[in-house]
Design a protein that fits this description.
- With 235 residues, the chain is of the alpha/beta class.
- Helices cover 33% and strands 26% of the residues.
- It contains seven helices and ten strands.
- A six-stranded mixed sheet has the order 6-7-8-3-9-10, with helices on both faces. A four-stranded antiparallel sheet has the order 2-1-4-5, with helices on one face.
- A hairpin with a 2-residue loop joins strand 4 (67-72) and strand 5.
- Helix 3 crosses helix 4, helix 3 (108-118) packs parallel to helix 5 (150-162) and helix 4 crosses helix 5.
- The longest helix is centred in the last third of the chain and has 18 residues, at 180-197.
Length: 235
């Protein structure tokens, strides 16, 4: 799916992140550089504490690096204030997390409609209904999160992330709270929607099988790139 000749949708140049600790400054990331092409599926893997989630947060502009820069869709996030970065995210990025982050007082349909309504879409209900149908939840639209299984809640979260048709979807351990069978179905949905909509997928995962479905895999060790290789999945 990826097109290496296209301008990258994400560019990381020399990223470093240092945080204070009782023992002194702690380097979470050091000299991390790569690009991600439009419509590419890109996995970030590594043991706990290797810097995966920190890196994902920097790519989204949720945090700023101590050194280096991130360009998202051609925009240098380091030149923007917090509100500016939020505006770029709102127009470009969708998120899926390990914990589903659904609003308990909203139905499945209302949860998926929310980002569309915030974007001022007059067709929010129709779009949300359509993508919930694609996610196999047409009969569950009026249910609240507490009435849904874990797998159903994650499908709602995926539908909500894809509903605004983001250019980039960032997923942080999206199957981490699910049993193996449910996780496989969630991954199938994630990759099906990604392929259908041409979305760039950046995926943090411990699951080697999930990473193997991506075009490339970046391995972090102690905050540095240990390897960055194509998997053959996109060929």
């Amino acid at each position: 799916m990826n097109n290496p000749a296209a301008d990258p949708v994400i560019r990381a140049d020399g990223l470093g992140k240092i945080v204070p600790s009782p023992a002194g400054p702690l380097a979470i990331l050091a000299d991390v550089s790569f690009t991600i092409a439009p419509a590419e599926a890109f996995a970030i893997v590594g043991v706990s504490g290797s810097g995966k989630s920190t890196l994902l947060g920097l790519l989204a502009g949720l945090d700023l690096p101590s050194s280096g820069r991130v360009q998202l869709d051609g925009i240098d996030l380091g030149t923007l204030d917090e509100d500016g970065r939020a505006r770029v995210r709102a127009g470009t990025v969708g998120f899926v997390f390990q914990s589903f982050h659904l609003l308990a007082n909203l139905t499945a349909l209302e949860n998926v409609m929310l980002p569309l309504e915030l974007a001022g879409r007059s067709d929010a209900r129709a779009l949300a209904t359509e993508i919930l149908e694609r996610a196999g939840l047409g009969a569950r639209q009026a249910h609240y999160p507490r009435q849904l299984s874990g797998g159903e809640q994650q499908r709602v979260a995926i539908a909500r992330a894809f509903a605004p048709r983001p250019r980039v979807l960032l997923a942080d351990e999206p199957t981490g709270n699910l049993d193996r069978g449910t996780a496989v179905r969630i991954v199938d949905l994630l990759f099906a929607l990604r392929a259908e909509l041409g979305t760039t997928l950046v995926l943090v995962t411990h699951d080697e099988r999930l990473a193997g479905r991506c075009d490339r895999v970046l391995v972090l060790e102690a905050g540095r790139i240990a390897s960055l290789d194509a998997t053959g999945a996109g060929s």
